[in-house]
Amino acid sequence: MLISQALRIQTQDIVTIVGGGGKTTLMFRLAEELAGSGRHVVTTMTTRIFASQMQRAPAFLVLHDEQTLLAQLPQALDTYGHVLVAGNIQVEIDKVAGIPSALAERIAALPGVDALIIEADGSRRLPFKAPAAHEPVVPPSTTILIPVVGIDVLGQALDAGHVHRPQIVAELAGATLGQPVTPEIVAAVIAHPAGGAKDLPPGARLVPFLNKVESEETLNAARTLARLLLAYEPVDSVIIGAAEAADPVSEVWSRIGAVVLAAGGASRYGELKQLLPWGDVPLVAHVTRQALACPDVTRVAVTLGAGADGVHAALTGAALTGADVLQAPVPDWEAGQSRSVRAGLDALRRDSAPLGGVLFLLADQPGVSTALLAALIRRHRETLAPIVAPRYQGQRGNPVLFDRATFAEFARLEGDIGARPILQAYAGQIAWLDWPTAEIIEDIDTPADYAHHSAGRAARPGHPAGADQEHGLSDRSEERDG
Prior knowledge:
Helix content is 30%, strand content 21%. The protein is α/β, with parallel strands linked by helices. The chain folds into two domains: 3-247, Rossmann fold; 255-458, Spore Coat Polysaccharide Biosynthesis Protein SpsA, Chain A (Alpha-Beta Complex). The strands form three sheets. It has a 17-stranded mixed beta sheet that branches. It has a three-stranded antiparallel beta sheet with strand order 3-7-6, with no helix packed on it. Helix 5 crosses helix 6 (183-190). The longest helix is centred in the N-terminal third of the chain and has 15 residues, at 66-80. The protein is elongated, with a radius of gyration of 25 Å. The protein starts with a helix and ends in a 24-residue tail after the last helix.
């Protein structure tokens, strides 16, 4: 994946990069990607960089007079696509000074500038740092703030040989000088309002970049760190990769919510399927448990429509209450499946930190396993596809994961069609997860289905509820009748 895709770059974004472990490399790599796609990109800094690094840009302008620079920049962008804007060149120390933050914002406002990328502090080429009182210099119009850390700092001593300003790092993380740098220390500093999130403008996205991930060992370490970072509310998402690699992004981690669709009336079945017994709990509680048991699911919303009191009692009786399980009432559930889909998504978005995607589970699909949910989320991390869906021998099933790029379209859903229009709109962009067993396309539509599934489950004694389920993907993309 490209860095620009991982960051979800939009026209006129202002990207500010801080931290250590490869800021300048990241800045120029991102600029190359954007210019290569036809966008006009300006790189600059509010700190100093080495003069030799200027050669990584196809053209540069040096600030002597602001009015002249602003007049020259549009033509330079038309010619080169990517232009570096620098302050005075300090030849004696091989450094180039940065520009004032206010000038950076005026550059970003020029009609011909599609993106502005700023390096906003220094780290003495060390992989990890905490900012001093005078830094970073983050323009207030920044839309994406990227704290960078080199994953190679993990396990190193928290000292000046490995960390820039180790005393401040220790203070922010509650650590001791000289101890090994742990993922917990790095996460605490990156997400701290006096650390990597320092001067984060309101509305800007905080997207840490875990750099130098070049092996299975460092990938696993980065995954541990990503999970810790997402526990901090200011963090929007986490990029894992190596800015100098041919494929610079391995995975993008974000919060994934889950909606259990349980509002339907089950008119064809004859009674509420979501309240049928399944092990020691009703079916809706079992499916909710499965979602909660996946460590990569942040929060679960359960829609309540037909039999709302019974569904509420089922969740309460199974101790599925509290901050991790939201109950989303659907008073107009009879108006169609779209109401349930929208209510579940809205509940998650109101009560959660920023979400990267949402899984929609059917309350009549007991075979959904935590392994399946984790695999769908992993596929999303690798692709950032608008939709991730499972299939068996070409047949699509459930659950389906919808990326946040599709969220705005849920508000337009109407009638008894669930999310089908969104699936159709993105049909050519679905990232498929091929599942190996036929059971994943089965669900409960009739009493015979329920008897069959119950008998199959009973035939496997000794398995805790849900632990033996590796199936549960139906051909439906949304709730039909509960």
